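thought: fold this chain, then report.
action: predict
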Amino acid sequence: MKNWQKWPLTVSLIGILVSQLGCQPDPGEALNDRKRRENEQEINEYIDKNNLRGKEQKDEATGLYIIRTKAVPNGQAPAEGDEVKYYFVQSRLDGVIVDSSETTTGKPNVATIGAPTQGAITARLYNSLQLLKEGEEATVLAPYDPTDNKSGNLLLPAYTPVRYDIKVISVRTEEEQIQDYLVANKLTAAEKTTSGLRFLLTKAYPDSALVKAGQSAKIKYTGKLLNGNQFDASTDGADFNVGTGAVIAAWDEALVKMRVGEKATIVLPSSIGYGPLGKSPIPAYAPLAFDIEIVSAK
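observation:
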């Protein structure tokens, strides 16, 4: 009987051991996979604790949980090349704020969808923006993303799931950005060509010589992004070969429409500028504006 009396204790100890072993990580499981699984568990516990169950939509491709607090079913969805302006607050699931946009100054963050680099924006936030439409607001619960820096810091340790509260202010195609710029700068009289170039002659010299392909032209110019930031200029004039591909396609097209001494403003899509890759300091998919003056041509 004494031996039988030991069995309940033995069984109990075995049960505890089995339970502990069940909580131990599988030694064959990759660290990234294990952390992702643990993040999923934390997020689902957070959803239940905060009575969000049934309100979330999981995007299987990214693992993000989207809880729309303001849905705009007919809102514009972002596509490659589009500019997205947004506000955000990033926090841990315990409520500690990690990062945020400049909401108090009224300056939204800007991201370009499809750009080869995300800049300072995290993969989790970048992916979240692609799942929201213009005007929408949402809480996004995000497990760690293996493409993000996993080193972590004291405020946000590595492999930590996060919450984003996001408000999408606008989604604008390049064409919409250009049209907004033309209206804001009173350039709506500009001619639009089949390439998408907007050309407005601001100083005419009808009796002067027309610039021709193959010539070398001396040009004064100022180049700006459509947010007004200047990225290049030549106040004394620089020499360029015309119509040979030595300059961007928009310039080759615009310069042969001008005469020596004339000035023009051109606004162009990235397809005839620096394209989907950009060229430092010009971002990817950036529509641009130039003020051009033909000093001479020979």
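thought: worth noting. Confidence is low (pLDDT under 50) at residues 1-23.
final: tokens above.
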